[in-house]
TrEMBL record:
It comes from the Bacteria. It comes from Haemophilus parainfluenzae HK2019. Pfam families: Cyd_oper_YbgE. NCBIfam families: cyd_oper_ybgE. This is Cyd operon protein YbgE. Keywords: Membrane, Transmembrane, Transmembrane helix. InterPro entries: Cyd_oper_YbgE. The chain crosses the membrane at residues 12-33, 45-67, 74-94.
Amino acid sequence: MINSLYQLSNKGSLRTLSFILALFLTAAFFLNLNQFSTALRTTHPAWILAIFWGLINLWIHGIGFDIRRAIWQLVFLPFIGYFTTIIAIVQHWFL
């Protein structure tokens, strides 16, 4: 089941989306460092770890790294990265 869920996101357009979202959030870290670090300083540490985990998921998926084992496909599932990254971007720029 995990393999079929991972293969659902293993398409070229979703890999491109992963790469663009990862690039966008990484640029937000580097280009807006003072405001972003101030916003992260007041949030819960578990949410910060979830943002970084989602960002790592998107970089791995966006670059095209092929994961073969089911346990690592579950750990680095791109849908988790999409969810956390989109929430982090909306929370940072629109709230």
